[in-house]
Each structure stands twice: as structure tokens, then as C-alpha cells.
Specification:
Length: about 140
């Protein structure tokens, strides 16, 4: 997904995602966003388990700025959107949104930066050139 292109993931809100009042617990929006980024990689044929086992690479969120606009509730169908904003050395920046599918209301928005790490040292590692080509859609 080149910068500016988006990946969309439908997510249903279950009881386990909510607080006692049936409202989505704030930290779960980050989980929904993580799922969208992971499914984006999967859709590109990138297997994170294989990267870890074979190349000793993993991704970790190193920065997240989240704004909550409206609550999602039990049984809502959500659309979680991940848009690549850019690549920088060992990291990928995303603009993410969570919207209610029925009315497209913006529920949460975030800027998230995920770093490519050497899984042994946990230090930043540049994205391999072949992976970067796939990520950029070249």
C-alpha cells in the first residue's frame, strides 16, 4: 500500500470489547487498529511469524496519538481504516480511523508509527529492500 492508499477492515463489537455499559473500552480501539495493520501486511503476502522466525524481524508501535470522537457500542459493525502516511528508515507511519459502518460516523482517529526491529537486540532495523518494495506497492 503506497503512501496515501488505504486498507479497510470490518470489525464487530463484542461484549468482551465493552465496559459495563456496553460502550467500547478506550484501549480496544488500539487493538482494532493493530488488527487492521496486521491484516494489511497479510493481504500483501507478508507473514509476520515467518519474518520473526527466518529474518529475526518484528514490528512494534513506537508512537501513537489517539483522539476519541464518539463511542462505539456493543454489536456495532465498525470499519477500521489504515492509511500509510509514509516510510522513514526503519518505520512506517499510519493515519488510522475507526468508523461506525452504518452511518460512517468517526469514532476514533490516530497517528501511529510502527518500527521494524531486530528481534534479538530490539533495536531499529531498516526494512529489507524487498519488503519495502512490497509495502510501497512497487
Amino acid at each position: 500500500m503506497a503512501a496515501g492508499r488505504s486498507f479497510h477492515l470490518p470489525v464487530r463489537v463484542y461484549w468482551e470489547d465493552t465496559d459495563g455499559g456496553g460502550v467500547v473500552y478506550y484501549a480496544n480501539y488500539l487493538k482494532f487498529m493493530e488488527r487492521a495493520r496486521s491484516e494489511w501486511l497479510r493481504s500483501l503476502g507478508i507473514d509476520q511469524a515467518a519474518l520473526l522466525a527466518e529474518e529475526r524481524i518484528q514490528f512494534a508501535v513506537v508512537e501513537a496519538q489517539v483522539r476519541y470522537h464518539q463511542p462505539a457500542r456493543y454489536d456495532d459493525l465498525l470499519e477500521v481504516i489504515a492509511t500509510v502516511e509514509g516510510f522513514r528508515g526503519a518505520s512506517v507511519s499510519f493515519r488510522q480511523e475507526v468508523r461506525r459502518a452504518s452511518d460512517r460516523a468517526l469514532l476514533a482517529s490516530a497517528n501511529v508509527r510502527a518500527a521494524c526491529l531486530d528481534s534479538d537486540s530490539m533495536k531499529p532495523r531498516p526494512l529489507p529492500a524487498a519488503m519495502l518494495e512490497v509495502l510501497k506497492g512497487e
